[in-house]
Amino acid sequence: MRPHLLAVALVLVFACKQDQPKMPSLSETIPELPVPPDGEAISHAGGEDALQVRFKSPEGPEEIATYYRNYFSKNRWRLVSDIKTREGVIVMYAEGVKRPLWVTITKAPGEDGSLIDIAGAKAPSSGQ
After folding, report:
1. Model confidence at 6: pLDDT above 50
2. What is the DSSP track for 48-110?
3. Which domain holds residue 98?
4. Partners of 17 in the beta sheet?
5. Does the residue 126 lie in any domain?
6. Per the domain annotation, does 47 fall within a domain?
């Protein structure tokens, strides 16, 4: 496991509290977590079937978007949607071999850099 993936996994494990609803594991929702350049995991949220991890990076939104476009094209992902809103938010949806992935990139408020939200969902059970 790459060191930054291990670090993210450890942050998620230690940040969970017993009184929160049970969130799925990282491997169930985002088995291939593409950490942004110089990304630092700063928070996570989720429910029973989905997980979102927020990263902060010193890179600008366009540089982060270019990183993900290249990452998806080189790693057997299909970039289904790649839009930029009027507010400058970049939203991507990609389908991988194991699961889909949602990436939202915004400029960090009041400072240089970006906030990157990566979200994934558990695969539907075979009984559905």
Report:
1. no
2. SSEEEEEEEESS-HHHHHHHHHHHHHHTT-EEEEEEE-TT--EEEEEE-SS-EEEEEEEEPTT
3. 3-121
4. none
5. no
6. yes
Whole-number average pLDDT of the chain: 82
Does the structure show a pLDDT above 60 at 19? no
Q: Does residue 102 fall inside a structural domain?
A: yes
What CATH number does the domain containing 92 carry?
3.30.310
End-to-end CA separation in angstroms for the chain: 32
Indicate the residue type of 104.
T
Instruction: Name the DSSP class of 65.
Output: H
Residue with tokens 């270019």: 66
Q: How many domains does the chain have?
A: 1
Q: Stretch 52-57: mean pLDDT, rounded?
A: 95
Residue 75 covered by a domain = yes
pLDDT, tens digit, 9 for 90 and up, residues 26-36: 777 776 778 99
